[in-house]
Structures are given as C-alpha cells and as structure tokens.
Write a structure and sequence with these properties.
The protein has about 170 residues and is of the alpha+beta class. It has a single domain, classed as Aminopeptidase (3-Layer(aba) Sandwich), CATH 3.40.630.30. Helices cover about 25% and strands about 40% of the residues. It contains 4 helices and 9 strands; from the N terminus they run E-H-H-E-E-E-E-E-H-E-H-E-E. The strands form 2 sheets. The chain has a 7-stranded mixed β-sheet with strand order 1-2-3-6-7-9-8, with helices on both faces. The protein starts with 5 loop residues before the first strand and ends in a 6-residue tail after the last strand. The relative contact order is 0.15.
C-alpha cells in the first residue's frame, strides 16, 4: 500500500509557518476567517490540523473544546458528576487543486482521533446546506446529521459520538 502524498500536522499560532495557514484560510475559506481570528472561540482551547502536500498548505481543520450545551446557552451537560465536552469544528477547507485526493477525509479522521485523545464525548460540526462535498465526507465517516432552519437559512449539524460510556 502506498503512502499518502500528504502529511497532517498540528500547528499553533507560534508555528513558523502560521502565515502560510492564514493565507490558505483567506484564499480558500474567507467566510471562516472570523471563526479563526475573531472572538468566536478565543475563550476555548483550540487545535489546528494542517494538511501539507509537496510542503505546501493544502487544507486545514480547526476545532475548539467546549462543554456540551454551552454554545446553545444551555447549562453544561453533566453525566455522573462529569461535565461532557465536545470538539466543535470551527473551520475546515481544502484548497481547490488538492480536492478529491482524500485530504479532507484524512483531516476529519485526524480530528476524530485527536478529539478522543482530548477526552471529548463528541465531535460536532455546523455547516450550510449547500456544501455537498463536506456532507459526503462526514456522512461517509459515520457522522449523524440534524437539519436545522432559522428563517430562510438552512444548516446541518453533524455529530460523531466518541465515547460509548462514561464512568
């Protein structure tokens, strides 16, 4: 079996190549910039996964860790005196020339693995209704989906359970 032509690394804002990620973000998914650089998740521990192909930033996935329920203005979900957390994907994109090579799928799989390592109960992602490539990746990996409408805006909430039982 051949090795993938890409590498996935975890970066922070202190990474020497952080400006390359920012350029990719702004070129590939400008609508997601506020979720990375704005106040949206500044209060959360956040993680950035970067896909490199031929030593170029080909794509990324950024998620934050939060108590389940907090984003909806609900009290944190508690089970057996343990606050349950979720990894919430804030930004995800693959540059056009690198699509359909398994990079998006690999980024999602790495996010699932990393979220489990961080002790999260689930991985969540909120996306627009008009992103079939993203939907296909998530559904093929086993995410559940919940359609949601607010006025004229239709969205999808994807959830991946990560822990079957809580002690």
């Amino acid at each position: 079996m051949s090795e993938p032509l890409y590498l996935i690394e975890e970066w922070t804002e202190k990474h020497a190549r952080w400006p390359e990620f920012l350029q990719c973000l702004q070129e590939t998914a400008p609508e997601q910039v506020p979720f990375v650089l704005g106040d949206y998740a500044r209060h959360l521990p956040c993680y950035l996964l970067v896909a490199l192909q031929n030593n170029r930033v080909a794509g990324f996935l950024r998620f934050g860790i939060q108590p389940i329920g907090a984003e909806a203005g609900c009290p944190p979900l508690d089970l057996n005196s343990q606050i349950l957390t979720e990894a919430k994907i804030h930004a995800f994109a693959v540059q056009a020339e690198y699509r359909n090579q398994g990079i998006g799928r690999a980024l999602q799989k790495k996010a699932i693995k990393r979220s489990k390592e961080l002790g999260c109960y689930q991985l969540a992602s909120h996306t627009s209704y008009n992103n079939p490539a993203n939907h296909h990746v998530k559904l093929s990996l086993g995410f559940s989906v919940l359609p949601e409408a607010h006025g004229d805006q239709m969205n999808l909430i994807f959830l991946m359970p990560l822990q079957v039982s809580i002690p």
